[in-house]
């Protein structure tokens, strides 16, 4: 079996392919490495100018080593093996978008530290309870939330239109500041129904 690609090797390949210095790049794309990256490491702290880091479609099991990325606003970790939202303290003051769909996350512990978060894409994870969704109430700036494919979403009727509209109302009751749920803008009628309930 092939040895996993290291972050250092992926950064070097990115620099070669894009003909840029990674330390100066605002968008660093390390997604879909072959063989996949399995571990985030301290090499990421060299990406001082990075605003958008893409590590999607790898085999990363744990979020780590983001300290020193003082300008990071978008972190893309979709299609990995991540089980927990953790080790984001180093970017908590700048991170506005977390793309973490298609992972193994079942709890939203520590999400409240991401006070600037506006967009959270976390479809196809393992979120099964309203208690976890309610942890998002601490995120006053959150306006766009993607939860399709989580057990809590799937429990609302397998795509039946009526039940999916009830799902949206239940989400809005808990998170009234949302402007978009599951890729669809929130309308005035939904907001009114959520306030009545």
From TrEMBL:
Main location: cytoplasm
Superkingdom of origin: Eukaryota
Family according to the record: Belongs to the dynein light chain LC1-type family.
Localization, UniProt: Cytoplasm, Cytoskeleton, Cilium axoneme
Gene3D superfamilies referenced in this protein's UniProt entry, alphabetically: Ribonuclease Inhibitor
SMART domains: LRR_SD22
CC per GO annotation: axoneme; dynein complex; microtubule
Keyword ATP-binding: no
Name the UniProt record assigns to this protein: Dynein axonemal light chain 1
Record PROSITE patterns: LRR
Organism, as annotated: Pyramimonas obovata
Keywords for the protein's UniProt record, in alphabetical order: Cell projection, Cytoplasm, Cytoskeleton, Dynein, Leucine-rich repeat, Microtubule, Motor protein, Repeat
Pfam family for this entry, one: LRR_4
């Amino acid at each position: 079996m092939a040895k996993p690609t290291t972050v250092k090797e992926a950064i070097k390949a990115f620099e070669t392919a894009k003909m840029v210095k990674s330390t100066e790049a605002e968008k660093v794309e390390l997604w879909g490495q072959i063989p996949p990256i399995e571990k985030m490491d301290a090499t990421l702290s060299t990406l001082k100018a990075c605003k958008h880091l893409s590590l999607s479609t790898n085999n990363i099991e744990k979020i780590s080593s983001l300290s020193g990325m003082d300008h990071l606003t978008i972190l893309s970790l979709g299609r990995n093996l991540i089980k927990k939202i953790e080790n984001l303290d180093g970017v908590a003051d700048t991170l506005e978008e977390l793309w973490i769909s298609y992972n193994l996350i079942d709890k939203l512990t520590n999400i409240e530290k991401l006070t600037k978060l506006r967009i959270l894409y976390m479809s196809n994870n393992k979120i099964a309870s309203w208690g976890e969704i309610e942890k998002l109430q601490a995120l006053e700036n959150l306006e766009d939330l993607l939860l399709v494919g989580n057990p809590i979403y799937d429990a609302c009727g397998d795509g039946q239109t009526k039940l999916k509209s009830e799902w949206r109302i239940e989400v809005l009751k808990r998170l009234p500041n949302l402007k978009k749920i599951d890729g669809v803008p929130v309308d005035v009628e939904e907001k009114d129904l959520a306030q009545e309930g």
